[in-house]
Structures are given as C-alpha cells and as structure tokens.
C-alpha cells in the first residue's frame, strides 16, 4: 500500500528536522493521533577502539594475525598435498586411524577459511564504523539525489573502513585472499599426466609367491587339481594392510589347472606350469570379480554382465560385452617348490582405459 492510500489520521506525524528523522535517540510517543510512531534509534555507544587508538592498534594486529594464519594454513595445505603419501595413516583420538593426507588437507583448509572469516568479522566489529543509519523507504526507482546520497555513503563507508590508513590489515588481507585460491589450483594437479603408468602395473613381480586367498598359504602345484578353480593373491599382501583393497583390485588371480593338451594358445602354454594357468580375476568389461568356472568347457563367466572367457584359448572373449581377453600372469616354481610369478602382467588389468594399446 502506498503512502497516498493510507488514511490521513493513520499516517505517522512528520518530523520537523533531519536530526529528528535520522539522529540517534529521537523518539516519538504513540498516541491516538499517531498510533504508529517511530521509536527512533537507541543512543550510539562508542566502542573502546573508537576512543583509544592503542586499543584500535591491538585490534588491527589481531586481524592481521588472523589473515597471516590463513596464509600459513594455505601454504600448509599445498605442502601437505604434495608431501604426504596417500597411503599414510595416523591415529587421531577419538576418531581412530584415518588418512593422514585427508586429515592434513581438511585441517589446513578449514583453518585458512576460518581465519579469513574471523579476521573479517573482528575487523568489522572493532574498527569499522558501527553507527546505525535509519533511512525512509523510497520508490524502487531511485531519484538522482538518492543515487548521489548512496554514492556519498559508499565513499564514506570506504573511508570509515580505515582500509587506506590501516595498511597492515590491508596488506595481510590481500595476501590471505591471494594465496587461498592456490588451494584450488593445486587440486588441478590430478587432471594432468598423473597417475602416469600406475594403472598399468600391479604388485606382481618376479619371485613373488602365489598365496591361496582362502588358506593364506603359498601354493604348490600339487595343491591345484585338474578342473579346479583357486583364487590367489601376491605374497605379503594382507587384509589388514591400509592399501589392501587398492592392490587386490589389480592383483587378484584365478588359478586353473588344465591338461596341457587342452591348451590351444601357444603363449598361454609357455606362461603356464604343468597346465596351471594364472589369469586376472578382474573382468575387462567394468571390473567385476570373475567367480564362475565351467570345468568341461574351460569357460569362466563374469556374474555381472555375463562376459564369458575361454581359459583354454588365451582367455579370449567368446560372449558378452567385455572388450578384450583377460591378462595372463606368467608363473613358475621356485626352489622350495612353490608357485611364483615370473613378472607382472604385460597389459593393464581390468576395463579398458584411454591409454590402452
């Protein structure tokens, strides 16, 4: 409702002067003639920083200290991102064992953000002007005199922010705001050539024994019967290891013993030992673990999307959406009679990725 539509008797009384309208402590008493009187603003109380320059300088140093802490926290974020290994874990009471990298990144980033905010709040509450200004409502389209007033108020506010006079605050604030975005820039690091060739390699290397996943014991050729399916992992990889899930996702093996005469692929026969072949357990479609074996046909089936591989013919795909054969691990027997790897897989394990081939 516009002021023209308000009955005359219900309109607030006009103030005599600008001081009454905007001054502190100006109070109008409500009565029958003026039921909606403006109570005015309470008297302004000066802060200690307004009357004591030493207190103002202390507040300035506090704000500068907070901005400086933000800069140091940003540097700590960058240093943590570069220096702390992803696999390292630390104990934090009462949370328990957590990733040292995640803890350092979260703590440093939180401190950097908090101290910028705390510094800005302390600056506003102790050094910027806290004088309240009342202004009457005006039409949405501001007249020229109002625009001029807003511009003047802005300039006055900029002047009262003491940004030009408090150079220590200004410089440390600019430093904190300039350094903080580097935290986000550092995250772009993983969009580059990293992780290099890590996707092409697993834990397997020459001389590493094949360990039964169920018994956790090294495998001998006699432990693998013809037609059986056995799952294996690299020697030294334990379930309580911090990186167990990451490593087993690439290194998991399935061991099958075939009659050497039934092996059609020459390379597969050369890489086997007495008909024992070792293939990656990870399906080359979307990385599901393969667990179904058909003894008569020597086929293995992925339970997720029914990709089927022929283990008697280089584990080539004979059905389903998988794009290529399962990688084979070359195996042999060490001096103690245990099955061992003779190297790593020659191609990446699991689904195809952009650098395959």
TrEMBL record:
<comment type="similarity">
    <text>Belongs to the Rieske iron-sulfur protein family.</text>
</comment>
<keyword id="KW-1003">Cell membrane</keyword>
<keyword id="KW-0679">Respiratory chain</keyword>
<keyword id="KW-0411">Iron-sulfur</keyword>
<dbReference type="GO" id="GO:0046872">
    <property type="term" value="F:metal ion binding"/>
</dbReference>
<feature type="region of interest" description="Disordered">
    <location>
        <begin position="1"/>
        <end position="46"/>
    </location>
</feature>
<comment type="function">
    <text>Iron-sulfur subunit of the cytochrome bc1 complex, an essential component of the respiratory electron transport chain required for ATP synthesis. The bc1 complex catalyzes the oxidation of menaquinol and the reduction of cytochrome c in the respiratory chain. The bc1 complex operates through a Q-cycle mechanism that couples electron transfer to generation of the proton gradient that drives ATP synthesis.</text>
</comment>
<dbReference type="GO" id="GO:0004497">
    <property type="term" value="F:monooxygenase activity"/>
</dbReference>
<dbReference type="GO" id="GO:0051537">
    <property type="term" value="F:2 iron, 2 sulfur cluster binding"/>
</dbReference>
<comment type="subunit">
    <text>The cytochrome bc1 complex is composed of a cytochrome b (QcrB), the Rieske iron-sulfur protein (QcrA) and a diheme cytochrome c (QcrC) subunit.</text>
</comment>
<keyword id="KW-0812">Transmembrane</keyword>
<feature type="domain" description="Rieske">
    <location>
        <begin position="245"/>
        <end position="340"/>
    </location>
</feature>
<feature type="transmembrane region" description="Helical">
    <location>
        <begin position="90"/>
        <end position="118"/>
    </location>
</feature>
<keyword id="KW-0560">Oxidoreductase</keyword>
<dbReference type="InterPro" id="IPR017941">
    <property type="entry name" value="Rieske_2Fe-2S"/>
</dbReference>
<feature type="transmembrane region" description="Helical">
    <location>
        <begin position="168"/>
        <end position="188"/>
    </location>
</feature>
<dbReference type="GO" id="GO:0016705">
    <property type="term" value="F:oxidoreductase activity, acting on paired donors, with incorporation or reduction of molecular oxygen"/>
</dbReference>
<keyword id="KW-0472">Membrane</keyword>
<keyword id="KW-0001">2Fe-2S</keyword>
<dbReference type="InterPro" id="IPR014349">
    <property type="entry name" value="Rieske_Fe-S_prot"/>
</dbReference>
<keyword id="KW-1015">Disulfide bond</keyword>
<dbReference type="GO" id="GO:0005886">
    <property type="term" value="C:plasma membrane"/>
</dbReference>
<dbReference type="InterPro" id="IPR045603">
    <property type="entry name" value="QcrA_N"/>
</dbReference>
<dbReference type="Pfam" id="PF19297">
    <property type="entry name" value="QcrA_N"/>
</dbReference>
<keyword id="KW-0249">Electron transport</keyword>
<protein>
    <recommendedName>
        <fullName>Cytochrome bc1 complex Rieske iron-sulfur subunit</fullName>
    </recommendedName>
</protein>
<feature type="compositionally biased region" description="Basic and acidic residues">
    <location>
        <begin position="8"/>
        <end position="23"/>
    </location>
</feature>
<keyword id="KW-0813">Transport</keyword>
<dbReference type="InterPro" id="IPR036922">
    <property type="entry name" value="Rieske_2Fe-2S_sf"/>
</dbReference>
<dbReference type="Pfam" id="PF00355">
    <property type="entry name" value="Rieske"/>
</dbReference>
<keyword id="KW-0408">Iron</keyword>
<keyword id="KW-1133">Transmembrane helix</keyword>
<feature type="transmembrane region" description="Helical">
    <location>
        <begin position="62"/>
        <end position="84"/>
    </location>
</feature>
<keyword id="KW-0479">Metal-binding</keyword>
């Amino acid at each position: 409702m516009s002021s023209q539509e308000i009955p005359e008797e219900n309109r607030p009384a006009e103030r005599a002067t600008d001081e009454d309208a905007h001054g502190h402590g100006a109070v109008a008493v409500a009565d029958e003639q003026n039921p909606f009187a403006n109570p005015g603003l309470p008297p302004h109380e000066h802060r200690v920083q307004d009357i004591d320059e030493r207190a103002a300088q202390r507040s300035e140093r506090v704000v500068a200290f907070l901005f400086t802490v933000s800069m140091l926290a940003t540097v700590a974020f960058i240093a943590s991102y570069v220096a702390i290994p992803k696999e390292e874990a630390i104990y934090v009471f009462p949370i328990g064992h957590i990733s040292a990298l995640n803890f350092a990144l979260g703590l440093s980033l939180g401190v950097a953000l908090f101290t910028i905010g705390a510094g800005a709040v302390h600056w506003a509450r102790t050094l910027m002007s806290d004088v309240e200004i009342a202004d009457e409502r005006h039409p949405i389209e501001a007249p020229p005199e109002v625009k001029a007033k807003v511009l003047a108020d802005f300039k006055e506010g900029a002047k009262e922010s003491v940004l030009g006079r408090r150079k220590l605050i200004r410089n440390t604030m600019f430093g904190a705001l300039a350094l903080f975005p580097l935290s986000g820039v550092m995250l772009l690091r993983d969009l580059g050539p990293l992780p290099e060739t890590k996707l092409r390699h697993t834990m397997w290397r020459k001389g590493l024994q094949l360990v039964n996943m169920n018994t956790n014991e090294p495998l001998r050729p006699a432990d693998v019967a013809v037609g059986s399916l056995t799952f294996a992992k690299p020697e030294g990889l334990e379930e309580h290891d911090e990186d167990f899930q990451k490593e087993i996702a690439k290194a998991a093996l399935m061991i099958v013993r075939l009659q050497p005469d039934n092996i059609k692929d020459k390379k597969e026969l050369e890489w086997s030992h007495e008909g024992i072949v070792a293939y990656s357990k990870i399906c080359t479609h979307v990385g599901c673990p393969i667990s179904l074996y058909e003894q008569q046909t020597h086929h293995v089936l992925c339970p997720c999307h029914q990709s089927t591989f022929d283990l008697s013919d280089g584990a080539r795909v004979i059905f389903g959406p998988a794009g290529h054969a399962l990688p084979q691990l070359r195996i042999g027997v060490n001096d103690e009679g245990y099955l061992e790897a003779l190297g790593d897989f020659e191609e990446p394990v699991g689904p195809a990725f952009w650098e395959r081939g």
